[in-house]
Design brief:
Layout lengths: L21 H29 L12 E7 L6 H18 L2 E6 L4 H4 L8 H11 L5 E5 L3 E3 L6 H6 L1 H7 L26 E5 L4 E9 L2 H10 L2 H4 L6 H12 L1 H4 L2 E3 L2 H4 L1 E2 L18 E3 L10 H18 L1
Parallel strand pairs: 1-2, 1-3, 5-7, 8-9
Antiparallel strand pairs: 3-6, 4-9, 5-6
Protein name: Alpha-1,2-galactosyltransferase
InterPro entries: Glyco_trans_34 (IPR008630), Nucleotide-diphossugar_trans (IPR029044)
Organism: Penicillium olsonii
Length: 313
Amino acid sequence: MQFAVPPRRSPLPITRSSRMPIYRKKQLKPIALLTVAIFSLLYIIHHTYTLIPTSVVVIPSGVVIVTLLDRQRLSESYISKIVANREDYARRHGYRNFFASVSDYDDAIGDAPKTWAIAPAVRHAMAKYPRSTYFFHLSPHSLIMNPTKSLKSHVLEKSKLEELMMKNAPIVPPDSIIKTFSHRDEKDIDLIITQDTEDLNPGSFILKSGDFARFFLDLWFDPLYRNYDFAKAETHGLDHILQWHPTVLARTALVPQRSISSYSKDSLRASPEGTYKDGDLVIQFRGCEMEGRDCEKELEPYYNRWLGIIQTD
């Protein structure tokens, strides 16, 4: 890439006479300084805009919803419903959507389970929307069921997040010896996540853009974890990181499950406290892709319910 070079300044008028009036010399000095300032400003503006890749979309601070789709396994009908659900929510609250395909990250994932694609997908979204503040990863096996609730009023506002934060709670239920810190404030938090009865739930989390976010995603996606052969792949990798890396735990808020990811009644490890109830923000069909279940069939009644909500809203 080549950058424009600031135009060379024309030499100031010079007289060979040593008798140039002093007042003219004094006039020329501010003119020269002003000329230098103007050309410097033009150069900086041009240099700044040529540095922004054409693939980057610069938008005001806000929220980007990241949805990772496995287009080889999900039908077009199913995908269209998920996309419609996300686009409606984003349009209502001025958010952006980032729809990624699992196959986009095949080379990076290698032989590890495809579910590891969450980390590079979120990192990709951060690169595309560098001026957004929050990135809300949401499993494709989930629906936003309360479209009127913004993330700001529901979770992100200072008073709301401090109310939701689970302090001195086991990271991995029910009795992990590693617990959330009891002295964290909203200003300390960069990662908001929930858990079910056995593990953390990477199917729904909110990550604040910044140095910590990049560090966290790089750590989570490290080959050491991807190749460790965890029984639950990226979920157990996340369990490990939050339990044994206090640097990450110190920036994490654990919130009640129903605040950002209620489970459907048929979901794996659904508990009375974590099962969807009318008014909850999100319903997740955890494990619906497993043998004996049907994601499209489980989605359908809730999708129709959501359609009824947005049509009467």
